[in-house]
Amino acid sequence: MCAPIAGNLTNRFNATHVSSIGVLIFCLGLGALIFLPERPSVGDFLWRVVLCGMGYGFFLPPNNKEMFANAAKTRTATASGVLSTARTTGQSIVAALVAMVLALMGGLSGSTEGEFSVYVFAFACAISALSLLASMARIYKRQDQDLAL
Q1: The pTM is what?
Q2: CB within 10 Å: which end of the chain, N or C, has fewer?
Q3: What is the annotated localization of this protein (predicted)?
Q4: In this predicted model, what pLDDT tens digit does every residue of 21-54 receive, in sequence order?
């Protein structure tokens, strides 16, 4: 739903800025998931997940556009393969990390599912916040380079 809108926005605005806004929205959604009530309703959960989905939808297309724009036209197939490999590798590593955290949390006495979900969403929120900082640094670096010219 948001991906076509994000694609259109990148025709008018800098793709890095649009993807940074997407990461910010995603981070806010993950942060909201941290504060789920102990017994959440479907609505409590749904609006938070929708916010995460919107953020991801605003992040991914502009980010891909930016990556392919920086690849030589003769290398777009290679860039696509590298992107796919990086995405699959990242998903695999995260799945392994989640399994490890599950195993470690299972060994802790007194931990509950609620506590575990708070830790998971807080960790994910921290990673997305670091991604946002990296994106913002890229924007400021580009602005400094433009001013130097």
Answers
A1: 0.80
A2: C
A3: Membrane
A4: 999 999 999 999 999 888 889 999 999 999 999 9
